[in-house]
Amino acid sequence: MRIDVLTLFPGLFESPLRESILGRAIAAGHLSVQAHNIRDWAEGRHQVTDDAPYGGGDGMVMKPEPVARAVRTVKQSCPEAMVIMLTPQGRTFRQADAEMLARRPALIFLCGRYEGFDERIRTSLVDAEYSIGDYVLTGGEPAALVMIDAIARLVPGVLGSEGSAQSDSFADGLLEYPHYTRPVEWEGQRVPEVLLSGNHAAIARWRRRQQLRRTRERRPELLATAALSDEDQEFLQTLERNDGPEQG
Ligand code: 4FV
User: Could you tell me if the CB of 137 is within 6 A of ligand 1?
Assistant: First the structure.
Protein backbone atom coordinates (compact mmCIF):
# COMPACT_ATOMS: atom_id res chain seq x y z
CA MET A 1 0.00 0.00 0.00
CA ARG A 2 1.18 3.53 -0.81
CA ILE A 3 0.28 6.40 1.52
CA ASP A 4 0.98 10.06 0.78
CA VAL A 5 0.33 12.82 3.29
CA LEU A 6 -0.08 16.49 2.33
CA THR A 7 0.69 18.74 5.29
CA LEU A 8 2.34 22.03 6.30
CA PHE A 9 4.30 20.09 8.97
CA PRO A 10 5.85 16.93 7.42
CA GLY A 11 8.19 16.66 10.42
CA LEU A 12 5.22 15.52 12.51
CA PHE A 13 5.32 12.21 10.64
CA GLU A 14 9.02 11.41 11.04
CA SER A 15 9.31 9.61 14.35
CA PRO A 16 5.84 7.97 14.48
CA LEU A 17 6.63 6.28 11.16
CA ARG A 18 10.13 5.28 12.24
CA GLU A 19 9.21 3.46 15.46
CA SER A 20 7.84 0.01 16.27
CA ILE A 21 5.39 -1.86 14.06
CA LEU A 22 4.89 0.88 11.48
CA GLY A 23 8.63 1.58 11.28
CA ARG A 24 9.38 -2.10 10.69
CA ALA A 25 6.55 -2.48 8.17
CA ILE A 26 7.80 0.49 6.15
CA ALA A 27 11.40 -0.77 6.34
CA ALA A 28 10.20 -4.20 5.18
CA GLY A 29 8.34 -2.62 2.28
CA HIS A 30 4.85 -3.71 3.33
CA LEU A 31 3.77 -0.11 2.83
CA SER A 32 5.28 3.27 1.94
CA VAL A 33 4.39 6.55 3.67
CA GLN A 34 5.58 9.86 2.22
CA ALA A 35 4.83 13.25 3.83
CA HIS A 36 4.89 16.21 1.43
CA ASN A 37 4.97 19.91 2.38
CA ILE A 38 2.05 21.75 0.80
CA ARG A 39 4.16 24.94 0.95
CA ASP A 40 6.38 23.45 -1.79
CA TRP A 41 3.45 24.08 -4.18
CA ALA A 42 2.78 27.67 -2.99
CA GLU A 43 3.75 30.55 -5.23
CA GLY A 44 5.68 33.73 -4.57
CA ARG A 45 8.64 34.57 -2.42
CA HIS A 46 6.66 33.94 0.74
CA GLN A 47 5.00 30.73 -0.49
CA VAL A 48 1.67 31.78 1.06
CA THR A 49 -0.65 28.85 1.81
CA ASP A 50 -3.39 30.57 3.81
CA ASP A 51 -5.43 33.78 3.68
CA ALA A 52 -8.17 35.68 5.51
CA PRO A 53 -11.72 34.29 5.25
CA TYR A 54 -14.16 35.97 2.85
CA GLY A 55 -17.04 37.34 4.87
CA GLY A 56 -14.73 38.13 7.79
CA GLY A 57 -14.26 36.20 11.04
CA ASP A 58 -11.30 34.89 13.01
CA GLY A 59 -8.50 32.70 11.81
CA MET A 60 -7.14 31.90 8.38
CA VAL A 61 -8.24 29.54 5.61
CA MET A 62 -5.98 27.28 3.53
CA LYS A 63 -5.81 28.54 -0.06
CA PRO A 64 -7.02 26.15 -2.81
CA GLU A 65 -4.20 26.57 -5.35
CA PRO A 66 -1.20 25.08 -3.43
CA VAL A 67 -3.32 22.17 -2.17
CA ALA A 68 -4.70 21.46 -5.66
CA ARG A 69 -1.22 21.51 -7.20
CA ALA A 70 0.04 19.18 -4.47
CA VAL A 71 -2.81 16.67 -4.90
CA ARG A 72 -2.54 16.70 -8.70
CA THR A 73 1.22 16.24 -8.59
CA VAL A 74 1.02 13.24 -6.25
CA LYS A 75 -1.86 11.76 -8.28
CA GLN A 76 0.26 11.95 -11.46
CA SER A 77 2.41 9.15 -10.00
CA CYS A 78 -0.54 7.42 -8.35
CA PRO A 79 -3.82 8.02 -10.28
CA GLU A 80 -5.68 5.31 -8.32
CA ALA A 81 -5.09 7.04 -4.99
CA MET A 82 -8.15 7.87 -2.83
CA VAL A 83 -8.00 11.45 -1.47
CA ILE A 84 -9.04 11.64 2.20
CA MET A 85 -9.60 14.99 3.95
CA LEU A 86 -9.31 15.02 7.76
CA THR A 87 -12.01 17.29 9.16
CA PRO A 88 -14.33 17.43 12.18
CA GLN A 89 -17.18 17.55 9.62
CA GLY A 90 -16.21 14.13 8.19
CA ARG A 91 -17.79 10.75 8.94
CA THR A 92 -16.47 9.29 12.20
CA PHE A 93 -13.65 6.85 11.50
CA ARG A 94 -14.50 3.27 12.57
CA GLN A 95 -12.77 -0.14 12.42
CA ALA A 96 -14.92 -1.04 9.42
CA ASP A 97 -13.51 2.03 7.62
CA ALA A 98 -9.98 0.90 8.49
CA GLU A 99 -10.73 -2.54 7.01
CA MET A 100 -12.18 -0.99 3.83
CA LEU A 101 -9.32 1.50 3.37
CA ALA A 102 -6.69 -1.18 4.04
CA ARG A 103 -7.86 -2.92 0.86
CA ARG A 104 -7.14 0.18 -1.28
CA PRO A 105 -3.84 0.38 -3.27
CA ALA A 106 -3.12 4.00 -2.36
CA LEU A 107 -4.36 6.79 -0.08
CA ILE A 108 -3.62 10.54 0.01
CA PHE A 109 -4.33 12.24 3.36
CA LEU A 110 -5.05 15.99 3.34
CA CYS A 111 -4.14 17.59 6.66
CA GLY A 112 -5.62 21.00 7.38
CA ARG A 113 -4.49 23.75 9.71
CA TYR A 114 -6.05 27.02 10.93
CA GLU A 115 -9.81 27.15 10.26
CA GLY A 116 -9.43 24.48 7.59
CA PHE A 117 -9.48 24.27 3.79
CA ASP A 118 -11.20 26.51 1.23
CA GLU A 119 -14.49 24.71 0.51
CA ARG A 120 -13.63 24.34 -3.18
CA ILE A 121 -10.88 21.85 -2.26
CA ARG A 122 -13.51 19.61 -0.76
CA THR A 123 -15.85 19.81 -3.76
CA SER A 124 -13.22 19.37 -6.48
CA LEU A 125 -10.50 17.06 -5.16
CA VAL A 126 -11.69 15.01 -2.15
CA ASP A 127 -13.08 11.44 -2.31
CA ALA A 128 -13.88 11.04 1.40
CA GLU A 129 -13.91 13.14 4.59
CA TYR A 130 -13.12 11.54 7.95
CA SER A 131 -13.14 12.75 11.53
CA ILE A 132 -11.46 10.82 14.34
CA GLY A 133 -13.85 12.26 16.90
CA ASP A 134 -15.93 15.20 18.09
CA TYR A 135 -13.14 17.42 19.39
CA VAL A 136 -10.99 20.09 17.68
CA LEU A 137 -7.29 19.43 16.97
CA THR A 138 -4.67 22.03 16.04
CA GLY A 139 -4.28 20.25 12.72
CA GLY A 140 -5.33 17.19 10.73
CA GLU A 141 -1.91 15.54 11.24
CA PRO A 142 -2.70 13.70 14.48
CA ALA A 143 -5.92 12.44 12.89
CA ALA A 144 -4.04 11.21 9.81
CA LEU A 145 -1.56 9.38 12.07
CA VAL A 146 -4.43 7.68 13.90
CA MET A 147 -5.99 6.52 10.64
CA ILE A 148 -2.63 5.46 9.13
CA ASP A 149 -1.88 3.37 12.25
CA ALA A 150 -5.31 1.67 12.27
CA ILE A 151 -5.14 0.97 8.51
CA ALA A 152 -1.47 -0.08 8.30
CA ARG A 153 -1.82 -2.81 10.93
CA LEU A 154 -4.43 -4.47 8.69
CA VAL A 155 -2.08 -4.55 5.69
CA PRO A 156 -0.86 -8.15 5.14
CA GLY A 157 2.54 -8.76 6.72
CA VAL A 158 2.50 -5.68 8.95
CA LEU A 159 1.40 -7.24 12.23
CA GLY A 160 3.56 -10.37 11.90
CA SER A 161 4.02 -12.03 15.32
CA GLU A 162 2.57 -9.06 17.19
CA GLY A 163 -0.76 -10.82 17.12
CA SER A 164 -3.48 -10.94 14.57
CA ALA A 165 -6.09 -8.38 13.72
CA GLN A 166 -8.67 -11.14 13.88
CA SER A 167 -8.88 -11.00 17.65
CA ASP A 168 -9.16 -7.19 17.71
CA SER A 169 -11.69 -5.14 19.58
CA PHE A 170 -14.51 -4.45 17.17
CA ALA A 171 -13.26 -7.26 14.86
CA ASP A 172 -16.53 -9.01 15.71
CA GLY A 173 -18.28 -5.79 16.66
CA LEU A 174 -17.76 -6.40 20.41
CA LEU A 175 -15.30 -5.01 22.93
CA GLU A 176 -12.34 -7.28 23.68
CA TYR A 177 -12.20 -9.70 26.64
CA PRO A 178 -9.82 -8.97 29.55
CA HIS A 179 -6.22 -10.15 29.18
CA TYR A 180 -3.98 -11.65 31.86
CA THR A 181 -0.32 -12.75 31.98
CA ARG A 182 2.21 -13.79 34.67
CA PRO A 183 2.31 -13.55 37.67
CA VAL A 184 -0.75 -15.73 38.42
CA GLU A 185 -1.20 -13.79 41.69
CA TRP A 186 -0.55 -10.05 41.86
CA GLU A 187 -1.29 -7.91 44.89
CA GLY A 188 -3.88 -10.43 46.00
CA GLN A 189 -5.56 -10.56 42.61
CA ARG A 190 -5.55 -14.03 41.01
CA VAL A 191 -5.94 -14.82 37.34
CA PRO A 192 -9.41 -16.38 36.65
CA GLU A 193 -9.10 -20.19 37.11
CA VAL A 194 -10.64 -21.00 33.74
CA LEU A 195 -7.63 -19.36 32.02
CA LEU A 196 -5.31 -21.73 33.87
CA SER A 197 -7.43 -24.82 33.03
CA GLY A 198 -6.08 -25.57 29.56
CA ASN A 199 -9.71 -26.26 28.64
CA HIS A 200 -9.80 -24.27 25.39
CA ALA A 201 -13.56 -24.65 24.89
CA ALA A 202 -14.22 -23.31 28.39
CA ILE A 203 -11.68 -20.51 27.88
CA ALA A 204 -13.31 -19.48 24.57
CA ARG A 205 -16.74 -19.55 26.21
CA TRP A 206 -15.53 -17.44 29.18
CA ARG A 207 -13.87 -14.92 26.86
CA ARG A 208 -16.98 -14.62 24.68
CA ARG A 209 -19.11 -14.01 27.78
CA GLN A 210 -16.65 -11.39 29.01
CA GLN A 211 -16.92 -9.65 25.64
CA LEU A 212 -20.74 -9.67 25.83
CA ARG A 213 -20.79 -8.50 29.46
CA ARG A 214 -18.26 -5.73 28.89
CA THR A 215 -19.92 -4.53 25.69
CA ARG A 216 -23.34 -4.55 27.37
CA GLU A 217 -21.95 -2.49 30.29
CA ARG A 218 -19.79 -0.02 28.36
CA ARG A 219 -21.08 0.19 24.76
CA PRO A 220 -24.58 -1.34 24.67
CA GLU A 221 -25.26 0.34 21.30
CA LEU A 222 -22.64 -1.98 19.73
CA LEU A 223 -24.78 -5.04 20.55
CA ALA A 224 -27.32 -3.94 17.94
CA THR A 225 -24.79 -4.37 15.10
CA ALA A 226 -22.68 -7.24 16.48
CA ALA A 227 -23.01 -10.75 15.00
CA LEU A 228 -24.56 -12.58 17.99
CA SER A 229 -25.26 -16.33 18.19
CA ASP A 230 -28.31 -17.82 19.94
CA GLU A 231 -26.01 -18.73 22.83
CA ASP A 232 -24.86 -15.08 22.97
CA GLN A 233 -28.47 -13.89 23.02
CA GLU A 234 -29.34 -16.38 25.81
CA PHE A 235 -26.39 -15.21 27.89
CA LEU A 236 -27.38 -11.54 27.42
CA GLN A 237 -30.92 -12.40 28.52
CA THR A 238 -29.57 -14.04 31.70
CA LEU A 239 -27.64 -10.83 32.37
CA GLU A 240 -30.82 -8.88 31.68
CA ARG A 241 -32.80 -11.10 34.03
CA ASN A 242 -30.45 -10.97 36.91
CA ASP A 243 -28.09 -8.09 36.86
CA GLY A 244 -26.82 -9.91 39.90
CA PRO A 245 -23.32 -11.18 40.76
CA GLU A 246 -20.69 -12.20 38.11
CA GLN A 247 -21.26 -15.57 36.35
CA GLY A 248 -18.31 -17.63 34.94
C1 4FV B 1 -10.05 16.83 13.09
C2 4FV B 1 -10.80 15.88 13.77
C3 4FV B 1 -9.77 18.21 13.54
C4 4FV B 1 -9.97 21.37 12.62
C5 4FV B 1 -9.31 22.68 12.34
C6 4FV B 1 -7.69 20.93 12.22
C7 4FV B 1 -8.86 20.44 12.99
C8 4FV B 1 -7.86 22.40 12.10
N9 4FV B 1 -9.63 16.29 11.95
N10 4FV B 1 -10.79 14.73 13.03
N11 4FV B 1 -11.41 15.98 14.97
N12 4FV B 1 -9.17 19.04 12.64
O13 4FV B 1 -10.09 18.57 14.67
O14 4FV B 1 -10.09 15.01 11.93
O15 4FV B 1 -7.54 22.80 10.80
Answer: yes
The CATH number that domain 2-161 falls under is 3.40.1280.10
**Alpha carbon nearest to ligand 1 atom 10, residue:** 131
SS (H, E, C) 82-119: EEEEEEEEEEECCHHHHHHHCCCCEEEEECCECCCECH
pTM of the model: 0.92
Q: Which CATH number fits domain 185-242: 1.10.340.30, 3.40.50.2000, 1.10.600.10, 1.10.1270.20?
A: 1.10.1270.20
For the stretch 86-122, pLDDT in tens is 999 999 999 999 999 999 999 999 999 999 999 999 9
The 10 Å Cβ neighbour count of residue 90 is 18
Q: Answer yes or no: is the C-beta of 146 below 6 A from any ligand 1 atom.
A: no
Instruction: Write out pLDDT tens, residues 229-238.
Output: 999 999 999 9
In the chain, where the domains are located: 2-161, 185-242
